[in-house]
Predict the structure.
Amino acid sequence: MSNSHIPWIAHNLTDVAGSRLTNSPGFFRAANWAVSTMKSWGMVNAQLEPWGEYGRGWETEQFSISMTAPYAQSIIGYAVPWSSNTNGEVKAPVAILRQSALYDSAYINKHLNEYNGKIILLEDGRKKIDADFKPFSMRLTDDELAKMPDTYMIAQKLIESYIKILKMQDDMLLKLKKAGAVAVVSDNGRDGTVAVQAFTGYKPGTPESLPQAVISEVDALKIKRLIASGHPVELALNIKARFYDKDTKGHNVVAEIPGSDPKLKAQLVMLGGHMDSWTAGTGATDNGAGCIVMMEAVRLLDSLHLQPKRTIRIVLWDGEEEGLLGSYHYVQNHYGNGETGQFKPEQAKVSAYFNLDNGSGKIRGIFAQKNEAVKPIFEQWLAPFNDLGAKTVTMSNTGSTDHLSFDWVNIPGFQFIQDPLDYENKTHHTNMDTYDYLQIDDLKQAAVIVASFVYQAANRPDMLPRKPPVKEKFAFDGL
């Protein structure tokens, strides 16, 4: 705690590397730095490991958006990842289109000519920003920890329906482009916070759609009121971005501390978090924080010259934001298929995988993922850290991040419980996801606990117990 390298690791992964969209220059700046840094610590087999076909990287080179009529004013906004370019600044009047109309081909066909030469502003129906008297940042109470529910669990049917909605939306935007629309702008957030994300456009051969930007809701509400009161609005928009498709494979960062026991060193204890991020911030809390903690954890173990019996392997994933792609394909490559139940020999050698991906908050416990046999083990491992606020082992599940890939192939995969802080209210996928919203002391606490868990797992006589295998389709397959 007194000699932590976390501020330095955090600075390099965020401020220095920038945003880390998969296959973008920012991702490789961070990934190559992580590899060289862990090599300098004395870790072995540090490398970028390709996991399979991903698609195109993308990075903004220039972006601006402003209102030019009825008067000039700046607007808070960002290009949407994988947006096409405007080919210089374009100025055009704004036309409103209901968001729901993007799923109504009859309406679009009837009104196509109304959007010729226009910048389309999508209307979501919100008329004002409600007062909010709740704090942005929160810590979990003992009562909330005791009643910890399943979190971030997404049903396969919901994912499949969302994919259909995205396809319909992309088709309508292509139709509007052919009709002469100039660009499309959406809005979200409050107080200048804007969430910026996309889930299509990275695959090679994707048709070039309209230039897309997202602006703050406070700016959008003003524009909509002006238009509603008879005052036409004109926007100036410039998007200049570059696609990167020389190498369309995805890459995870991998490094190891070798095991020392002749019989157990072939077995693995794994830890990780996802390195890829969205583009409006520098991906500090999502999920720079997880990578920072995991790198510090292995640095602590290595700097103490400990000799774990089992090999410890850290993996920093890419493609998580597009559907856990890096971890899912890594697991398929190394361990088998959870849907068919056909496992590879390596699968039997992994004791556990530990993940961190819920922001910058301190660790308050761990999700046991319905694995009853690990509950007393984890309670014992947490006991020395009860005074640091970490004492809860819940049987509940948590989803939507990379431990699910391991759980899918019947490898014990776990996500730690973290204080939420302002992760969901301010930083998650937004322009506020920057170094300044990292809670450094919380990350120090988390790194110490992760290092202890990993070391305990690497040295206990037996591997961690497993749940009975269940054949099932991977929840994010297809995104």
